[in-house]
Amino acid sequence: MQWTRVSSHRSPARALILVDLGVVLIWVWLASSYEKRAILHRDAIEVAGWFYSRKLNFAEIRGRRGSGGSRGAFGYAYIFVPLDRRKRQLSLPPSLRTDQIFRDWIRTIPKIQG
Asked: pTM here?
């Protein structure tokens, strides 16, 4: 950093600590976006991550749509559209591994466009 004159007033040790902190923050952000879980409750579906959790009741789901394709770089993700347009959509992680119970349940949710 001193070579590029971006931070000529900082010591090299302090600059290394800031770079290390930046790398750790990027790693945590990437890992937290990968480590999401979809949880089927009796009356709702929940997506839980390290720093947040979102839940959508089954009665509030208008339908589902997909994002991307199975051959895309990020994979296929299910997106649940709520009945209330003011509420945010709930998207499942593309890395979600499904079982037969989930596949049977997802077929009960109608597909919608856009």
From this structure: 0.66
